[in-house]
């Protein structure tokens, strides 16, 4: 039986990076003999290679929603995989609008892409990508691997999804970007690993002050209505009866004054199970 694992390539919520911060969101899921990339924030290609995985070994890409911290590097990643010798088509599942992003990316690179086709003899990049629109329900069902999607609560984004992977008797749920939603407990029921996004109430005011070029109140209101408190992530883990709760998509993801205990404390009030603090490059074997 093939081994299964999840690698957190980037665990920071939001597209900004600063000295000492982790990288924006992407996750590599290896289950059912497949290598699946979920989201492609800045730093994804580096993160994949750091796992010892060639870019051309990615079988499938799933994009949970169109915020920049989840798609900024999708184009550069696919382009780089192509120049690194991609030999087969990668299927990319994502919300409506992802093809607009792709068209814009390839348009921005048309000079270079045309050169590589006509001067260097590459087959057209377009032959190696296929985009499919993601919706609720079964996304992939193939050779013992089942991937399901549930629309989550990430206003004002409406096409934003949580994902559940099942293969070889193992199951993993990635919350994607979402505020607390009771339905998550049923979606994550009994899974071995729940990777859930979190924000820390007590650190939001300082974060909004640091950003500087956005309206502080609007920014804070976004975090509160669109992301999940650590307490609520702990509550979901308890209600769902998961084997392990892993935090990712930290907001803030660049505050060196916050300790692992700061992140654990709220969830610990709700659940006494195995809580891991995600880090860039962390691998969880299933
Ligand atoms: Zn995000
Ligand atoms: Zn988002």
UniProtKB/TrEMBL annotation:
The Metallo-beta-lactamase domain, residue ranges: 23-227
UniProt keyword annotation of Hydrolase present: yes
Descriptive protein name: MBL fold metallo-hydrolase
Keywords attached to this entry: Hydrolase
SUPFAM superfamilies (alphabetical): Metallo-hydrolase/oxidoreductase (SSF56281)
Entry's transmembrane regions: none
Highest taxon, organism lineage: Bacteria
InterPro entries: AtsA-like_MBL-fold, Metallo-B-lactamas, RibonucZ/Hydroxyglut_hydro
Classification of source organism: Bacteria, Pseudomonadati, Pseudomonadota, Alphaproteobacteria, Rhodobacterales
Gene3D superfamilies (UniProt xref): Ribonuclease Z/Hydroxyacylglutathione hydrolase-like
One Pfam assignment: Anti-Pycsar_Apyc1
């Amino acid at each position: 039986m093939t081994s299964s694992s999840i690698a957190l390539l980037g665990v920071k919520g939001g597209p900004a990076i600063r000295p000492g911060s982790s990288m924006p969101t992407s996750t590599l899921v290896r289950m059912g003999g497949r290598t699946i990339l979920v989201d492609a924030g800045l730093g994804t290609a580096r993160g994949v290679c750091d796992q010892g995985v060639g870019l051309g070994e990615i079988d499938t890409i799933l994009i949970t929603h169109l915020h920049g911290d989840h798609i900024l590097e999708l184009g550069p990643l696919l382009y780089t995989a192509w120049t690194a010798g991609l030999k087969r088509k990668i299927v990319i599942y994502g919300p409506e609008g992802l093809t607009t992003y792709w068209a814009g990316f390839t348009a921005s690179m048309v000079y270079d892409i045309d050169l590589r086709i006509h001067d260097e003899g590459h087959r057209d990049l377009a032959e190696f990508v296929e985009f499919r629109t993601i919706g609720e329900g079964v996304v992939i069902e193939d050779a013992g691997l089942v991937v399901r999607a549930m629309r989550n609560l990430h206003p004002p984004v409406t096409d934003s999804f949580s994902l559940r992977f099942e293969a070889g008797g193992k199951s993993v749920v990635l919350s994607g970007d979402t505020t607390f939603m009771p339905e998550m407990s049923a979606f994550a029921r009994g899974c071995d690993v729940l990777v859930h996004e979190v924000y820390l109430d007590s650190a939001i005011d300082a974060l909004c002050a640091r950003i500087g070029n956005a309206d502080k109140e609007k920014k804070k209101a976004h975090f509160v209505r669109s992301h999940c408190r650590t307490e609520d992530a702990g509550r979901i883990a308890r209600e769902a009866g998961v084997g392990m709760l892993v935090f990712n998509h930290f907001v803030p993801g660049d505050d060196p004054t916050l300790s692992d205990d700061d992140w654990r404390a709220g969830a610990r009030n709700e659940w006494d199970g195995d809580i891991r603090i995600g880090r860039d490059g962390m691998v969880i074997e299933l």
